Queue: 2 jobs
Job 1
Amino acid sequence: MKDLRRYLVLKYIQYLVLSSSNAISTFLGLLGSLYTIIILQSAKVSSKSTVVLISSLAKADILVSVSIVSEMVVWTFEVSISSTAFTSALLQNLLTANAHVSCLLLSCVAVEAYLITFFPTDSRHLRTVKNARLTSRIIWILVTAECTLFQTDVLLKASSTSAPTRSPCVLLFHFSSTAAALLRSLSYFLGILLRIANVYIYYKIFFSMSNR
Protein backbone atom coordinates (compact mmCIF):
# COMPACT_ATOMS: atom_id res chain seq x y z
CA MET A 1 0.00 0.00 0.00
CA LYS A 2 1.13 3.52 -0.77
CA ASP A 3 0.51 4.66 2.80
CA LEU A 4 2.87 2.01 4.16
CA ARG A 5 5.51 3.05 1.65
CA ARG A 6 5.19 6.67 2.72
CA TYR A 7 5.49 5.54 6.34
CA LEU A 8 8.71 3.66 5.54
CA VAL A 9 10.13 6.74 3.80
CA LEU A 10 9.29 8.83 6.87
CA LYS A 11 11.01 6.34 9.16
CA TYR A 12 14.08 6.09 6.93
CA ILE A 13 14.43 9.86 7.07
CA GLN A 14 13.88 9.91 10.83
CA TYR A 15 16.37 7.19 11.78
CA LEU A 16 18.79 6.64 8.90
CA VAL A 17 19.05 10.07 7.26
CA LEU A 18 18.84 12.57 10.12
CA SER A 19 21.85 12.52 12.43
CA SER A 20 19.61 12.93 15.47
CA SER A 21 15.88 13.07 16.06
CA ASN A 22 14.13 16.38 16.68
CA ALA A 23 10.69 17.39 17.91
CA ILE A 24 9.18 17.63 14.42
CA SER A 25 10.47 14.27 13.16
CA THR A 26 9.50 12.59 16.44
CA PHE A 27 5.96 14.02 16.29
CA LEU A 28 5.50 13.02 12.65
CA GLY A 29 6.93 9.59 13.40
CA LEU A 30 4.45 9.05 16.24
CA LEU A 31 1.53 10.13 14.05
CA GLY A 32 2.73 7.87 11.25
CA SER A 33 3.08 4.90 13.59
CA LEU A 34 -0.40 5.44 15.03
CA TYR A 35 -1.89 5.68 11.54
CA THR A 36 0.03 2.58 10.43
CA ILE A 37 -1.15 0.53 13.41
CA ILE A 38 -4.74 1.48 12.51
CA ILE A 39 -4.20 0.55 8.85
CA LEU A 40 -2.72 -2.83 9.75
CA GLN A 41 -5.90 -3.74 11.63
CA SER A 42 -7.79 -3.69 8.34
CA ALA A 43 -8.74 -7.00 6.77
CA LYS A 44 -7.60 -5.62 3.40
CA VAL A 45 -3.96 -5.81 4.49
CA SER A 46 -2.63 -9.29 3.83
CA SER A 47 -0.28 -10.96 6.30
CA LYS A 48 3.17 -10.86 4.71
CA SER A 49 6.68 -10.78 6.08
CA THR A 50 7.10 -7.10 5.20
CA VAL A 51 3.86 -6.26 6.98
CA VAL A 52 5.08 -8.08 10.11
CA LEU A 53 8.29 -6.02 10.11
CA ILE A 54 6.39 -2.77 9.56
CA SER A 55 3.98 -3.64 12.36
CA SER A 56 6.87 -4.22 14.76
CA LEU A 57 8.44 -0.95 13.58
CA ALA A 58 5.25 0.99 14.33
CA LYS A 59 4.88 -0.61 17.77
CA ALA A 60 8.44 0.43 18.65
CA ASP A 61 7.23 4.03 18.90
CA ILE A 62 5.29 3.03 22.01
CA LEU A 63 8.63 3.40 23.81
CA VAL A 64 8.86 7.01 22.65
CA SER A 65 5.29 7.67 23.82
CA VAL A 66 6.05 6.22 27.27
CA SER A 67 9.16 8.37 27.58
CA ILE A 68 7.35 11.57 26.53
CA VAL A 69 4.33 10.92 28.77
CA SER A 70 6.59 10.17 31.76
CA GLU A 71 8.50 13.42 31.30
CA MET A 72 5.24 15.37 30.96
CA VAL A 73 3.83 13.82 34.16
CA VAL A 74 7.00 14.66 36.10
CA TRP A 75 7.06 18.23 34.75
CA THR A 76 3.33 18.97 35.02
CA PHE A 77 2.68 17.54 38.48
CA GLU A 78 6.18 18.22 39.81
CA VAL A 79 6.57 14.63 40.90
CA SER A 80 9.58 14.17 43.17
CA ILE A 81 11.90 11.39 42.01
CA SER A 82 14.19 9.72 44.52
CA SER A 83 16.81 8.78 41.94
CA THR A 84 16.91 11.43 39.22
CA ALA A 85 19.94 9.96 37.45
CA PHE A 86 18.41 6.47 37.32
CA THR A 87 15.06 7.74 36.00
CA SER A 88 16.71 10.02 33.45
CA ALA A 89 18.84 7.11 32.21
CA LEU A 90 15.75 4.89 32.02
CA LEU A 91 13.86 7.39 29.86
CA GLN A 92 16.92 7.82 27.64
CA ASN A 93 17.24 4.04 27.30
CA LEU A 94 13.64 3.88 26.08
CA LEU A 95 14.55 6.29 23.28
CA THR A 96 17.75 4.35 22.56
CA ALA A 97 15.82 1.09 22.35
CA ASN A 98 13.32 2.67 19.97
CA ALA A 99 16.07 4.04 17.70
CA HIS A 100 18.05 0.79 17.60
CA VAL A 101 15.01 -1.43 17.04
CA SER A 102 13.78 0.89 14.29
CA CYS A 103 17.14 0.99 12.50
CA LEU A 104 17.46 -2.80 12.56
CA LEU A 105 13.88 -3.37 11.39
CA LEU A 106 14.27 -0.81 8.58
CA SER A 107 17.43 -2.61 7.49
CA CYS A 108 15.52 -5.90 7.46
CA VAL A 109 12.88 -4.29 5.22
CA ALA A 110 15.65 -3.06 2.92
CA VAL A 111 17.19 -6.55 2.71
CA GLU A 112 13.77 -8.01 1.94
CA ALA A 113 13.23 -5.42 -0.81
CA TYR A 114 16.63 -6.39 -2.26
CA LEU A 115 15.70 -10.09 -2.25
CA ILE A 116 12.32 -9.38 -3.86
CA THR A 117 13.98 -7.31 -6.59
CA PHE A 118 16.89 -9.57 -7.48
CA PHE A 119 15.98 -13.04 -6.15
CA PRO A 120 12.17 -13.17 -6.08
CA THR A 121 11.88 -16.92 -6.53
CA ASP A 122 14.99 -18.19 -4.77
CA SER A 123 14.33 -16.14 -1.64
CA ARG A 124 10.68 -17.03 -1.28
CA HIS A 125 11.40 -19.64 1.40
CA LEU A 126 13.24 -16.98 3.45
CA ARG A 127 10.60 -14.27 3.14
CA THR A 128 7.99 -15.90 5.33
CA VAL A 129 5.82 -14.53 8.11
CA LYS A 130 7.38 -17.00 10.54
CA ASN A 131 10.91 -15.81 9.77
CA ALA A 132 9.83 -12.16 9.99
CA ARG A 133 8.31 -12.70 13.43
CA LEU A 134 11.40 -14.59 14.58
CA THR A 135 13.65 -11.79 13.30
CA SER A 136 11.59 -9.14 15.07
CA ARG A 137 11.67 -11.15 18.30
CA ILE A 138 15.45 -11.57 18.14
CA ILE A 139 15.93 -7.83 17.51
CA TRP A 140 13.79 -6.94 20.50
CA ILE A 141 15.65 -9.39 22.74
CA LEU A 142 19.07 -8.06 21.71
CA VAL A 143 18.09 -4.42 22.15
CA THR A 144 16.44 -5.16 25.51
CA ALA A 145 19.65 -6.85 26.68
CA GLU A 146 21.66 -3.84 25.48
CA CYS A 147 19.52 -1.31 27.35
CA THR A 148 19.47 -3.52 30.45
CA LEU A 149 23.25 -3.40 30.49
CA PHE A 150 23.19 0.40 30.12
CA GLN A 151 20.69 0.73 32.96
CA THR A 152 22.67 -1.65 35.18
CA ASP A 153 25.77 0.43 34.55
CA VAL A 154 23.97 3.55 35.80
CA LEU A 155 22.71 1.69 38.89
CA LEU A 156 26.18 0.36 39.72
CA LYS A 157 27.73 3.80 39.28
CA ALA A 158 25.34 5.17 41.88
CA SER A 159 25.97 2.33 44.34
CA SER A 160 29.77 2.21 43.86
CA THR A 161 30.25 5.72 45.25
CA SER A 162 29.33 4.55 48.76
CA ALA A 163 30.96 1.12 48.54
CA PRO A 164 34.47 0.19 49.79
CA THR A 165 37.26 0.36 47.23
CA ARG A 166 37.78 -3.42 47.04
CA SER A 167 34.18 -4.50 47.37
CA PRO A 168 32.58 -6.84 44.79
CA CYS A 169 30.23 -3.99 43.83
CA VAL A 170 33.18 -1.88 42.64
CA LEU A 171 34.64 -4.76 40.65
CA LEU A 172 31.26 -5.40 39.07
CA PHE A 173 30.99 -1.70 38.30
CA HIS A 174 34.30 -1.70 36.41
CA PHE A 175 33.22 -4.74 34.39
CA SER A 176 29.79 -3.33 33.50
CA SER A 177 31.26 0.09 32.74
CA THR A 178 33.77 -1.42 30.30
CA ALA A 179 31.12 -3.63 28.70
CA ALA A 180 28.71 -0.69 28.35
CA ALA A 181 31.42 1.50 26.78
CA LEU A 182 32.32 -1.22 24.28
CA LEU A 183 28.67 -1.80 23.44
CA ARG A 184 28.09 1.93 22.87
CA SER A 185 31.06 2.04 20.48
CA LEU A 186 29.80 -1.08 18.70
CA SER A 187 26.31 0.41 18.38
CA TYR A 188 27.75 3.61 16.94
CA PHE A 189 29.79 1.84 14.25
CA LEU A 190 26.93 -0.56 13.52
CA GLY A 191 24.67 2.44 12.96
CA ILE A 192 27.13 3.83 10.40
CA LEU A 193 27.35 0.46 8.63
CA LEU A 194 23.56 0.18 8.52
CA ARG A 195 23.27 3.61 6.91
CA ILE A 196 25.85 2.69 4.26
CA ALA A 197 24.22 -0.69 3.62
CA ASN A 198 20.75 0.83 3.24
CA VAL A 199 21.99 3.47 0.82
CA TYR A 200 23.74 0.80 -1.25
CA ILE A 201 20.69 -1.48 -1.30
CA TYR A 202 18.27 1.20 -2.46
CA TYR A 203 20.85 2.51 -4.92
CA LYS A 204 20.97 -0.96 -6.52
CA ILE A 205 17.18 -1.29 -6.47
CA PHE A 206 16.63 2.16 -7.97
CA PHE A 207 18.97 1.62 -10.90
CA SER A 208 17.67 -1.89 -11.44
CA MET A 209 14.11 -0.58 -11.73
CA SER A 210 15.30 2.29 -13.98
CA ASN A 211 16.96 -0.12 -16.40
CA ARG A 212 13.78 -2.12 -16.65
Job 2
Amino acid sequence: KLAMASKGIADSFKELAVIVNTPGLDVPVKNFSDACSRFFVVFKVLKTGMFPRFPEIEYVTKVNDLAEASNLTPTLELMVDRDIEANCVRKVGSHTRNLLRIKRSLEMMRVMCEVLLDTESDHSLRDATFTAYNQVFAPHHGWAIQQAVATGIGSLLPKTLLSGMFNETGTYVTASASVTNYLDNLFLSKNLGIDW
Protein backbone atom coordinates (compact mmCIF):
# COMPACT_ATOMS: atom_id res chain seq x y z
CA LYS A 1 0.00 0.00 0.00
CA LEU A 2 2.77 2.43 0.89
CA ALA A 3 4.66 1.80 -2.31
CA MET A 4 1.48 2.40 -4.32
CA ALA A 5 0.76 5.55 -2.31
CA SER A 6 4.29 6.80 -2.91
CA LYS A 7 3.96 6.31 -6.67
CA GLY A 8 0.52 7.94 -6.67
CA ILE A 9 1.88 11.00 -4.86
CA ALA A 10 4.83 11.32 -7.21
CA ASP A 11 2.71 10.88 -10.35
CA SER A 12 0.09 13.39 -9.20
CA PHE A 13 2.68 16.07 -8.44
CA LYS A 14 4.48 15.40 -11.72
CA GLU A 15 1.17 16.17 -13.48
CA LEU A 16 0.76 19.35 -11.44
CA ALA A 17 4.33 20.37 -12.24
CA VAL A 18 3.58 20.11 -15.96
CA ILE A 19 0.62 22.46 -15.50
CA VAL A 20 2.47 25.08 -13.44
CA ASN A 21 5.44 25.02 -15.82
CA THR A 22 3.24 25.58 -18.89
CA PRO A 23 2.74 29.30 -19.62
CA GLY A 24 -0.90 30.35 -19.80
CA LEU A 25 -2.30 27.36 -17.92
CA ASP A 26 -4.13 27.87 -14.63
CA VAL A 27 -4.09 25.16 -11.97
CA PRO A 28 -7.48 23.48 -11.50
CA VAL A 29 -8.51 23.37 -7.84
CA LYS A 30 -9.68 19.78 -8.29
CA ASN A 31 -6.33 18.57 -9.69
CA PHE A 32 -4.51 20.30 -6.84
CA SER A 33 -6.74 18.94 -4.06
CA ASP A 34 -6.72 15.45 -5.59
CA ALA A 35 -2.91 15.42 -5.65
CA CYS A 36 -2.69 16.70 -2.08
CA SER A 37 -5.19 14.09 -0.84
CA ARG A 38 -2.78 11.34 -1.89
CA PHE A 39 -0.90 11.99 1.36
CA PHE A 40 -3.87 10.98 3.53
CA VAL A 41 -2.86 7.31 3.53
CA VAL A 42 0.63 8.27 4.72
CA PHE A 43 -0.83 10.09 7.73
CA LYS A 44 -2.84 6.99 8.62
CA VAL A 45 0.34 4.92 8.68
CA LEU A 46 2.08 7.52 10.82
CA LYS A 47 -0.81 7.57 13.27
CA THR A 48 1.06 7.37 16.54
CA GLY A 49 1.46 9.48 19.66
CA MET A 50 0.45 13.15 19.42
CA PHE A 51 1.77 13.60 15.89
CA PRO A 52 -1.44 12.66 14.00
CA ARG A 53 -3.34 15.70 15.23
CA PHE A 54 -0.85 18.04 13.59
CA PRO A 55 -1.25 16.81 9.99
CA GLU A 56 -4.97 16.33 10.50
CA ILE A 57 -5.49 19.94 11.60
CA GLU A 58 -2.89 21.52 9.35
CA TYR A 59 -3.47 19.49 6.23
CA VAL A 60 -6.34 17.02 5.90
CA THR A 61 -9.19 19.37 6.80
CA LYS A 62 -7.75 22.11 4.59
CA VAL A 63 -7.34 19.83 1.58
CA ASN A 64 -10.93 18.66 2.06
CA ASP A 65 -12.02 22.31 2.08
CA LEU A 66 -10.36 22.90 -1.30
CA ALA A 67 -11.91 19.71 -2.67
CA GLU A 68 -15.33 21.12 -1.80
CA ALA A 69 -14.38 24.52 -3.25
CA SER A 70 -13.49 22.84 -6.55
CA ASN A 71 -17.19 22.27 -7.15
CA LEU A 72 -17.73 26.02 -7.47
CA THR A 73 -14.32 27.44 -8.40
CA PRO A 74 -12.34 26.00 -11.34
CA THR A 75 -8.83 27.36 -10.71
CA LEU A 76 -6.61 28.31 -7.78
CA GLU A 77 -6.10 31.83 -9.09
CA LEU A 78 -9.83 32.45 -9.41
CA MET A 79 -10.34 31.03 -5.91
CA VAL A 80 -7.82 33.50 -4.48
CA ASP A 81 -9.33 36.38 -6.47
CA ARG A 82 -12.77 35.63 -5.06
CA ASP A 83 -11.45 35.66 -1.49
CA ILE A 84 -9.76 38.99 -2.20
CA GLU A 85 -13.02 40.41 -3.53
CA ALA A 86 -14.85 39.12 -0.45
CA ASN A 87 -12.14 40.62 1.81
CA CYS A 88 -11.72 37.32 3.65
CA VAL A 89 -8.24 36.18 2.59
CA ARG A 90 -6.81 36.03 6.12
CA LYS A 91 -10.01 34.88 7.78
CA VAL A 92 -9.74 31.50 9.51
CA GLY A 93 -11.26 28.93 7.20
CA SER A 94 -10.93 30.94 4.00
CA HIS A 95 -9.84 28.97 0.95
CA THR A 96 -6.81 31.21 0.45
CA ARG A 97 -5.64 30.84 4.04
CA ASN A 98 -6.08 27.09 3.77
CA LEU A 99 -4.10 27.09 0.52
CA LEU A 100 -1.19 28.81 2.27
CA ARG A 101 -1.23 26.21 5.06
CA ILE A 102 -1.33 23.38 2.53
CA LYS A 103 1.65 24.92 0.74
CA ARG A 104 3.63 24.82 3.98
CA SER A 105 2.70 21.19 4.52
CA LEU A 106 3.93 20.34 1.03
CA GLU A 107 7.16 22.22 1.78
CA MET A 108 7.59 20.34 5.05
CA MET A 109 7.14 17.03 3.27
CA ARG A 110 9.63 18.08 0.60
CA VAL A 111 12.26 19.05 3.18
CA MET A 112 11.63 15.77 4.99
CA CYS A 113 12.20 13.87 1.73
CA GLU A 114 15.38 15.85 1.02
CA VAL A 115 16.80 14.87 4.41
CA LEU A 116 15.84 11.23 3.86
CA LEU A 117 17.68 11.24 0.56
CA ASP A 118 20.81 12.40 2.37
CA THR A 119 20.94 9.82 5.14
CA GLU A 120 20.68 6.06 5.66
CA SER A 121 20.13 6.19 9.41
CA ASP A 122 17.38 3.95 10.76
CA HIS A 123 16.16 6.89 12.81
CA SER A 124 16.22 9.31 9.88
CA LEU A 125 12.42 9.52 9.64
CA ARG A 126 12.36 11.17 13.05
CA ASP A 127 15.35 13.37 12.22
CA ALA A 128 13.93 14.36 8.83
CA THR A 129 10.50 15.19 10.22
CA PHE A 130 11.99 17.22 13.07
CA THR A 131 14.24 19.15 10.68
CA ALA A 132 11.38 19.79 8.25
CA TYR A 133 8.97 20.92 10.96
CA ASN A 134 11.52 23.30 12.49
CA GLN A 135 12.33 24.80 9.11
CA VAL A 136 8.79 25.26 7.79
CA PHE A 137 6.19 25.37 10.56
CA ALA A 138 7.93 26.14 13.85
CA PRO A 139 8.40 29.85 13.03
CA HIS A 140 4.60 30.15 12.77
CA HIS A 141 3.72 28.13 15.89
CA GLY A 142 3.76 28.98 19.57
CA TRP A 143 5.84 27.13 22.16
CA ALA A 144 3.03 24.77 23.24
CA ILE A 145 2.34 23.54 19.71
CA GLN A 146 6.06 23.12 19.04
CA GLN A 147 6.43 20.95 22.15
CA ALA A 148 3.40 18.82 21.26
CA VAL A 149 4.69 18.23 17.75
CA ALA A 150 8.19 17.42 19.04
CA THR A 151 6.71 14.79 21.37
CA GLY A 152 4.75 13.24 18.52
CA ILE A 153 7.73 13.20 16.19
CA GLY A 154 9.73 11.38 18.84
CA SER A 155 7.31 8.46 18.63
CA LEU A 156 7.54 8.02 14.85
CA LEU A 157 8.51 4.63 13.49
CA PRO A 158 12.05 4.03 12.17
CA LYS A 159 12.50 4.58 8.46
CA THR A 160 13.15 0.89 7.74
CA LEU A 161 9.63 -0.02 8.85
CA LEU A 162 8.17 2.45 6.34
CA SER A 163 10.63 2.03 3.50
CA GLY A 164 7.89 1.59 0.90
CA MET A 165 6.86 5.18 1.45
CA PHE A 166 10.10 6.57 0.06
CA ASN A 167 10.43 4.84 -3.29
CA GLU A 168 9.45 7.98 -5.20
CA THR A 169 11.03 10.51 -2.85
CA GLY A 170 13.28 12.16 -5.43
CA THR A 171 10.43 12.56 -7.91
CA TYR A 172 8.24 14.23 -5.30
CA VAL A 173 11.03 16.62 -4.28
CA THR A 174 11.49 17.89 -7.84
CA ALA A 175 7.81 18.08 -8.77
CA SER A 176 6.60 19.64 -5.52
CA ALA A 177 9.24 22.37 -5.72
CA SER A 178 7.66 23.57 -8.98
CA VAL A 179 4.20 23.48 -7.40
CA THR A 180 5.14 25.40 -4.25
CA ASN A 181 7.10 27.95 -6.29
CA TYR A 182 3.96 28.52 -8.34
CA LEU A 183 1.96 29.04 -5.15
CA ASP A 184 4.56 31.49 -3.80
CA ASN A 185 4.34 33.48 -7.03
CA LEU A 186 0.55 33.38 -6.92
CA PHE A 187 0.43 34.85 -3.41
CA LEU A 188 3.11 37.43 -4.15
CA SER A 189 1.49 38.50 -7.44
CA LYS A 190 -1.68 39.32 -5.49
CA ASN A 191 0.34 41.28 -2.89
CA LEU A 192 -0.74 38.87 -0.17
CA GLY A 193 2.69 37.82 1.09
CA ILE A 194 3.48 34.32 2.34
CA ASP A 195 4.48 34.90 5.99
CA TRP A 196 1.11 35.15 7.73
